[in-house]
Amino acid sequence: MATTVITVENLSKSFGNIRAVRNLSFSVEAGRCFGFLGPNGAGKTTAMKMIYGKCLRDKNGDTRIDIFGYDPAKNELAIKYLSGVVQQEDNLDDELNVIQNLMVYARFYNMPIKTAKERIEYLLDFLELSEKATSKIRELSGGMKRRLVIARALLNSPRLLILDEPTTGLDPQVRHVIWDKIRQLQRQQTTVLLTTHYMDEAFQLCDRLLIMHKGRKIMEGRPDDLLVENMEQYVLEVRDIESAGQIDLKSLPERIRVDPVRELTRYYCDDIEILKELADSQLKAGNYLIRQTNLEDVFLKATGRQLNDRQ
To answer: pLDDT tens for residues 158-195?
Structure first.
């Protein structure tokens, strides 16, 4: 049976009148990837920061945070020592080269120079940056900078890796390289906390997902289970109002759920043949798409399709 290494109970955080996180509870097992999904302003990054001690939680007698046996309110340095953090921003020193950036960071952990050099050589190879070892930061692509930030977070061989939107803005090839590296770290029993806006990233990497909205937990579970438990299997997407208007809503089978949004109307159903018959009889070819539902459908159903007021 897997060991629980992170326990969070009734976690809250307010900034003035804004409730950023509201009574959040979850647990994470060793070597697992636990993901946070939610719109901008949902409270994901704030929750992460409270976990590793960068942000103080609200004082509440019912709140409990246990990170590998430590409370961030009392043992912030201990948690930071066993953690590696990849923030949203690539805060590298542009005046230094790749190795120099890592060597400076290694000093924070009092790593002997020989040990630091060996670790840096390994990490540059692991993240496919060896050829850029002496390059200045300004000479690196966005994907290389992101991989370097991850390498920096791994310098201290952390038991917990915290990734805050690690692949935002990167091309698909770089994203898949980073995904592969995260999977390799999990096989080495590194526990991963991840926030992301990419539904395919969450589905591919996370053993368990927590969907947040306006600071609250909306739902939690394995990605496959969230999909099965909350969505029909298939969806017919009609791409314009005029085409959608051709469908007689009164004659639709009860098994079809309709979700009209602006220029796109979706018809959800567990029976793909019903959707095919509907499309063939009432729509023109090219004006619609029938596909399997995915995690994005679950996300939008849980959080709504309107922009968050705090975005």
So the answer is: 999 999 999 988 889 989 999 999 999 999 999 999 99
DSSP 178: H
Phi, psi of 274 (to 5 degrees): -65, -40
The topology (CATH level 3) of 4-225 is: Rossmann fold (3.40.50)
Q: Give residue-wise pLDDT tens across range 29-67.
A: 999 999 999 888 888 989 988 888 777 788 777 889 999
How far apart are the C-alpha atoms of 153 and 108, rounded to whole Å? 12
What is the DSSP secondary structure assignment for residue 286, as one 8-state letter?
T
Looking at the domain 232-292, which fold is it? Answer: Alpha-Beta Plaits (3.30.70)
| Alpha carbons 174 and 141: distance in angstroms, whole number | 11
Say if residues 66 and 6 touch (Cβ distance below 8 Å).
yes
Give the burial class of 147: count Cβ atoms within 10 A of its Cβ; 0-12 exposed, 13-18 middle, 19 or more buried: buried
CA dist 241 and 194 (Å) reads 38
User: CB–CB of 205/35 below 8 Å?
Assistant: yes
Q: Note if the pTM is more than 0.70.
A: yes
The Cα–Cα gap between 204 and 279 comes to 31
CA 278 to chain centre: 36
